[in-house]
Records
---
Amino acid sequence: MASTVEARIYDCDGNWGTRGFRKASLASPVSAFHFVAHANVDNLGGDGQPPTNHWTLLLQTDTHAAVRLDMSPGDIGRPGMLILEDVKDTSASPADASFPDDRIHVVSVPVISESETTVEHILALIVREGRDNYIFAPVGEGCRFWLYTFAHDLGVEDIISFEDAERVHTALPKYYLYPPGTPAVQRPMAEGRFF
């Protein structure tokens, strides 16, 4: 019998994308979270908005492996999709656990209790708190607000410290310009809504 989490994430009518995710990853222990701002190489915004970065979350499961959570917008007024993807990079240095392709800024946060924290545990928190039911702001933004909210959830559940959740909260309302090393600028977050 499938777990509640498994049933939810593989529901064809749900808001999950699981094509690149193996069920076996549910049991993987999580040692750290990496909140990743992806480069906007042209430093351009869309639809008259100032530029912003797309953000994703990596659940570190091994030295060179993680599960990526990518809250992506749907059509205006429609739910976003939470895409799960197993990520491996055998060329990455263990010191650079933020290995996805186009990162420009990463906030890495350790898990308080690795022995109790699995991918399924994290996804169960998302399901329990309704974080998989999310509509982006009308301007098509909202991944930063989703991560801001989820970092708070992780702190409340003692999965990460409140100090680390605050480090994430401080990083999210900024735009990290391209090329890397350019000073970040404040960029207000457009807030989506949970339903």
---
Amino acid sequence: MSKSNSPIFNDLLTELEIHPVLIDIGSSGAPPEIWQPIAPHSVYVGFDPDLREIHEVPDGRFHKAITVNEAVTSDAQSDELRFYLTKSPYCSSTLKPDLESLSNFLFSDLFIVERETTVRAATLDSILDRLSLDRIDWLKTDSQGTDLRIFNSIRDEVRSRVLAIDIEPGLVDGYVGEDLFVDVHGDLIRNGFWLSDLNVCSALRMSKSALREATSARRQLDQAFVEKNLKKTPAWCEARYLRTIKSLAEGVYERRDYVLLWTFAILDNQFGFALDLVIEYERRFGQDDISLRIKEDSIERIRRSRVKNAQPRQTLKTRAKSLVPARTRRWLKQYIRPE
């Protein structure tokens, strides 16, 4: 997932006074890099009750930045949650780690619960009200197992206007009762999103006892060796979803939403989809200065991508050389000399 800069969308966000609302649930570490180009225009809200690895957002990076030291819950009746603080802060969750399932993996130590605590909790709806925010434009959630239920707990008038979602569901049972990718994907597709990017993250499926067996037989077969050399298995994924054009067409969306979704598509290098958005914008609102500018930018990005990604055309000689084994080519050179 790469970042991109564009004077066009920076100008448009300024001219239209658009301040994207970016919600970051599970914000241990820095805000997502992909948000950097639009940060000066954006309202950033980060959540993480595990403060051991949280990083303060530098002053001035965002138009406005707020850190909320509370857990986000889908249960409107609960203002506190049990929170499992694990060996790795990045694995802490309101769900209990599924140690039986995790015992099949060498990274299971990261999920060892060092202590349990009770943390303040609130729904996204209540926090938005508290902060006087009426929308979420891009939701990034890494809640360790509760991403889908958190998204679905948002009131409909806010949830239906979310334009982009970054989500990190599991592919194996890391937590008891967690929302897995198979659940998340189907739900988001049914609710007007399409999968724009997917990074599958892997772990070594090998128990600690198997590692001890290997190490006792051959001392060099330690954890570093097997982690480096053995095949990994998919364990979780980082998925990005963007709202579909059909969903926009069927809803009550404004020029702001089209421009902002176009901006998000550009940030995610989805230049073809960005041009489709321009076409839909003109169908709905008519051609105007905005559509002409973003159309030109989309087409130029597509053109530059073609040049950037184009492979050199192979000559017949080059093609022939690629088909002849190197050893044979060396042998032929002994007998074939240029005239």
---
Amino acid sequence: MGKLSVGKILGLLLMLWVTFLFIVPFLWMISTSLKEPSDLAGMNWIPSRLAFENYVDAFRFGMWPQWTLNTVIITLTAVIGQVLSSSLVAYSFARLRWHGRDVLFSIVLATMMLPSVVTMIPQFVLFSKLPAFGFMGSKVWINTFLPLTVPAFTGNAFYIFLLRQFMRGIPMELSEAAKMDGASELRVWWSIVLPLTKPAVATVVIFTFQGAWQDFMGPLLYLQSEKLYTLQLGLRQFEAAAGGSPAWNWLMAASLLVMLPVLLVFVLFQRYFIEGISFSGMGGR
């Protein structure tokens, strides 16, 4: 084995330092979540007693089961919507030939440069006027899950680009052979192209799941009834219920409970995620 150069040693030390900076807050969360109230004031990292009941107390706080269900519904709907809509649009850009395709694709990419904050107020005004016809007991889209789920079925510019680049690497002969057997474009997309883009789809699933599960601003804008709150708004209730001085052991326990599904999804899709990022830049390979 060759000797380590000074540059490699410095690089390893830098990576260790960055890893340390990222992992220390996480370890502090775990430590605080297992502390009793009497241990919170000190700087000790090891609790005097492991108070696992903090997790039970955090789960019983407010309407936590209902908030969990709301978050699951919104997140799963957003994931399904993004996978279906973005993959369909990407299929059109990557596998079909039609007039103005490249121009429209450039326009789609240009929307990525538009900050989401710019569209926040116009979207709120729009959703406050769209009729909900009594859905979830509301006359308009405000105070329903619609503003948090329906936009997912309109696609996302980054996901469209990611999937398009991956689909361009799939041989056209597969689609042509399926069409010769009588398959429609939708059949080719669903049965042939989509299964072959699992790595890119897994990337979309991870990003969408993380974005929807951890979204705070969207629910804060559109959800007014406490029974419709998501987990992110529920975490905020810990501070509000305690008059600005939350029980940190409960709050850290609740935060870890909220974080676990995101970590689980990433672990399950990690292999596909890495493949999707690696190969999506090799369109037409």
